[in-house]
């Protein structure tokens, strides 16, 4: 009996070892990662969105390997609140980030919020943030690897693409073979006239290698534009001042675009181009009249590219589905096949209001089925886009 038992245990142990090896092997070959790139106050100044003047070759390349969403909206047109919705999946009024996080504003999400980085960290995924964070508190939004404005100059960590490239490379060295979640917050193409007027209205002189005393960003080849050529959005008055401003914005977008190219190159060099879900978006509209902070389409509409290596047959397509930045958390959880935790906020059970975009990717041609429900939900969260979008949405 004892011998039989021992025999059983031994056999069992062998199976365990075999399973462990299989598990490791499977883990390795089907490793799934997520890279989210959030630009700061970026809009649709890209050929991806039919702006033929502002050149964004790297974003174009990413778009060719993505589904491009034409009707994506944030639920709030302000930096910290919008970022809190991207990272928590809960609208700002539910997660507590009603206003800006930094200095005197001092807004924070509620202590009990279970953010995306927290959920992923608990699931053993290596989490990283590089660049602009602008949300808190730290224990609600913890990252294993964190190089942000909290302990760097925002110019370096958010606009110096050579510096960013180095931090991204270090992240991949540290993540080694673990599945990862990397969030990169570029500070470009945010305005900077208020804090660094000497660097130009969009910090377009920072590191350009021409302007005296602004240093040099080795990886950036600035692209310049004639104000006569720029495309003035319909909601901005067409004046010489606006045109000069937009030309500066475009030059800064060239730094963002080349930075995205460097990040994607690091991803490739780390061998993860084929097992990483990549999302590109922005926090709110462009910093022009009627844009950022306004409850109009130009304040709330966002660029959104979703590149999934598991949906290659959909690459290059566009989607007219009405989607929200609140969809990002459910999408990432779907990708990692993780459930959203059960918990309460202010004594009420928390549920995500939005859904995964991975279903939308499969349905870009016949997008009615999974995305129609989402349409209805998104309308509720993007109230102000109601007038323009509801008709389109409902007619789908
Ligand atoms: C860009 O132009 C193409 C071709 O005319 C059109 O199919 C597409 O919907 C346009 N995209 C946007 C965002 O307007
Ligand atoms: C910044 O803070 C993070 C988190 O505390 C730490 O891991 C990192 O080493 C710090 N970086 C610098 C340059 O101080
Ligand atoms: C950008 O970062 C690189 C690498 O750290 C550094 O050599 C360069 O001086 C920085 N440029 C500026 C303008 O700060
Ligand atoms: C750049 O600034 C330095 C010191 O401020 C000055 O000595 C130098 O002449 C300036 N160079 C140019 C090209 O303006
Ligand atoms: C990427 O993954 C696909 C399967 O999803 C595979 O067919 C292809 O060979 C892979 N490419 C590379 C470069 O690993």
From TrEMBL:
Name the needed cofactors. Answer: Ca(2+)
InterPro entries per record: Alkaline_phosphatase_core_sf (IPR017850), Sulfatase_N (IPR000917)
Mind listing the GO molecular function terms for this protein? Answer: N-sulfoglucosamine sulfohydrolase activity
Keywords associated with the record = Hydrolase, Signal
Q: Which domain of life is it from?
A: Eukaryota
User: Could you tell me which residue ranges the Sulfatase N-terminal domain spans?
Assistant: 32-337
User: What is any one GO biological process for this UniProt entry?
Assistant: glycosaminoglycan catabolic process
Q: Show which residues constitute the signal peptide.
A: 1-31
Enzyme Commission number(s) of this protein? 3.10.1.1
| Matching Gene3D superfamilies | Alkaline Phosphatase, subunit A (3.40.720.10)
Similarity comment: family membership: Belongs to the sulfatase family.
Q: What is this protein called?
A: SGSH
Question: What is the organism field in this record?
Answer: Acanthosepion pharaonis (Pharaoh cuttlefish)
């Amino acid at each position: 009996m004892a011998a039989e038992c021992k025999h059983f245990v031994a056999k069992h142990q062998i199976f365990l070892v075999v399973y462990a090896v299989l598990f490791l092997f499977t883990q390795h070959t089907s490793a799934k990662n997520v890279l989210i790139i959030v630009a700061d106050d970026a809009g649709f100044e890209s050929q991806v969105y039919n702006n033929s003047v502002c050149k964004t070759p790297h974003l174009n390349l990413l778009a060719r390997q993505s589904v491009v969403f034409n009707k994506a909206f944030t639920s709030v047109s302000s930096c910290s609140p919008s970022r809190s919705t991207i990272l928590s999946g809960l609208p700002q009024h539910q997660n507590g980030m009603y206003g800006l996080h930094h200095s005197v504003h001092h807004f924070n999400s509620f202590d009990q919020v279970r953010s995306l980085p927290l959920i992923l960290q608990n699931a053993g995924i290596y989490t990283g943030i590089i660049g602009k964070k602008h949300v808190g508190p730290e224990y609600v939004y913890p990252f294993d690897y964190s190089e942000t404005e909290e302990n760097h100059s925002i110019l370096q960590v958010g606009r110096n693409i050579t510096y960013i490239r180095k931090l991204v490379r270090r992240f991949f060295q540290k993540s080694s073979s673990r599945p990862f979640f990397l969030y990169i917050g570029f500070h470009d193409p945010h305005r900077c006239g208020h804090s660094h007027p000497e660097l130009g209205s969009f910090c377009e002189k920072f590191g350009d290698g021409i302007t005296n005393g602004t240093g040099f960003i080795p990886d950036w080849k600035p692209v310049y534009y004639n104000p006569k050529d720029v495309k003035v959005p319909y909601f901005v008055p067409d004046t010489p001042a606006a045109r000069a401003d937009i030309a500066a914005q475009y030059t800064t977008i060239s730094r963002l675009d080349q930075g995205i190219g460097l990040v994607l190159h690091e991803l490739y060099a780390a061998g993860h181009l084929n097992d990483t879900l990549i999302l590109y978006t922005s926090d709110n509209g462009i910093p022009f009249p009627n844009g950022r902070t306004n409850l109009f389409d130009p304040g709330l509409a966002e660029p959104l590219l979703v590149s999934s290596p598991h949906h290659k047959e959909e690459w290059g397509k566009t989607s007219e589905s009405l989607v929200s930045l609140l969809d990002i958390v459910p999408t990432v959880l779907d990708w990692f096949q993780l459930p959203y935790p059960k918990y309460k906020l202010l004594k009420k059970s928390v549920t995500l209001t939005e859904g995964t975009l991975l279903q939308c990717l499969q349905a870009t041609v016949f997008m009615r089925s999974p995305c129609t429900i989402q349409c209805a939900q998104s309308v509720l969260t993007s109230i102000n886009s109601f007038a323009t979008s509801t008709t389109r949405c409902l007619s789908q």
